[in-house]
Amino acid sequence: MISNDSAWPPTLRKLNHDQYNLPHRPDIDNRTLLEYACVSLASASVMASDFARDLKGSQGHTLLGIQQSIMLGEMAVNRVLDNLDPP
User: Fold this and answer.
1) What is d(CA 15, CA 42) in angstroms, rounded to the nearest whole number?
2) Given phi > 0 = left and psi -120 to 50 = alpha, else beta, which region is 57?
């Protein structure tokens, strides 16, 4: 997960977040869960991309495909967040 608290959205920073329990807490609203999902997917995307650079050949290409799927999931979550607060 992202270790720098400034990278977290403000709603997550103020929760004194516990990255493993946050999705299971019943007091967390949908917007906060979506923000958590977005940050988690962004972290997974970066980790997969970094790891793919260390792999050679088809394994690296496979991991880059997985990274792209993660990134598309992040984009979908961002779009839902945008739709919750239209301009």
Assistant:
1) 19
2) left
